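Annex B.
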Amino acid sequence: MDATIAKQVEAALEYVAWTVLWNKYFAIMFLLLGLFLTIGTGFFQFRRFGDIFYNTLGGLFRKNKKVRESKVSSFGAFATALGGTVGNGNIAGVASAIAIGGPGALFWMWMAALVGMVTKMSEIVLTQHYKQRYEDGSSYGSAAYYIQKGLVEGKGWKWCKVLSLIFTVTMIGAFYFAPGPYTIVEALQSAFKLSGTTAIFCAIFYTGICYVIVLGGIPRIVKFAERAVPVMVLCYLSAGVLIIVKDIPAAIAGIKSIFYYAFQPYAAVGGFAGVTVMKVVQVGVARSVYSNEAGWGSSPIIHAAVDVDHPGRQGLWGAMEVFMDTMVVCTITGLMVIITGAWQTGRGGAGSVGEALGIAFGGYAPHMLAFFMIIFSLTTTTGWFSYLESLIVYCVQNKPHEERMKYVKFVRYTGPMVPLCVSMFFFYHGTVPSVVWMMLDIQSALPVYVNVIALTLLSPVIFRLVKEFETDYLNPEKAARQAAKAAAKSGTKATDEN
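Amino acid carrier protein: predicted structure tokens.
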């Protein structure tokens, strides 16, 4: 009976995730939104990729002039947001996407990310433009703020208040439904064959570490991210590159299968049924959004804390986040499970990545998987706390500062316990990782729906700000030359007329 109920629940979740929310029309619509923003900004992420890198990660290798002092640096916001995106979604999530949708899912993750670079940049530009400053010097922003200021107040569209409410409630729910402790339990059990009780104690210990970081507020979260994120990304990439280099023929075959199965349905493999091409697109786009958060409206929240000379400058960091998250880190995970054949079990989750590491590194694999999962999950969970603080402040924005801080402190003290309890429930009921990730896909879709509407309605503001930034800040010399030419032409014309 239990097995029958479990199958019914799984079927219901799959229906809601892939037929109702992440349906084929919405996946295509999301790609079209990215394409619309890409065209509207003149293919900015492709034309200006050199400038994006130069003004973000490239700045770490040279002495950079600070544009404006702020409590959170641009790199601090980037590290925190990247830590929030480069997390268990890049390990367990990508492996589950390929388990459900096959190798072709990775191709559609790439497509969603390429247009998602400008989508996330647009979110951050709007967040910076419409952010709220408070009397204590802090500044907060999110999709809820730019919906409120840009649409409700700016356009007088009162019905958009519903969008702000849906976004805020679903994003708070996304935090409390975070799978950090669950993925820790799953990874440790897979890696070290721990008993259920021992694995749960490890999850409790993990939650305790979260408390140590979170109780220090946004400054401690940002400081942790600045130190942990570069180390974890470099270590993970090194492991992935070694797997690829060790078997070049398999790597070439794996890359071919990504492109082939992106447009071809494949027959049943391992423990699951065959998949249509449309299902591959749906899974790839959904998991791309969950991983890099482009269009979700989450990462821009921490970027609102940075003071810059123009919203477009901080937007460049968002584009780089998506590139690093999906085009680099997710690609490494995908290639690992495809090259080693670990994806063919159909199980998904961190266990598939553990199997891939085991094939390449033998007995060291369990320790490597445990390290990656703990660090990746920590940066995600703590990064999301900085988002949650802004969401809570939005809910009580009209209250005095002292009262707002009471709500923030309440969340800091109680927040980590809820994901732990949810994870223990999944664990004790033996929930399969791919089912957990379907549930996450469901809750991630709702704020995306809201954000797609907001970005579309505010697209004229995005295009104006991006053009202004490109002209006045990326091309100041060119703009000056054009102005001088125009002035000279005008002078010549006036002389001729005289």
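Residues 2-476 form a domain with the Amino acid/polyamine transporter I fold (CATH 1.20.1740). Residues 65-69, 267-274 have pLDDT under 50 and may be disordered. Further annotation is deferred to the next reporting cycle.
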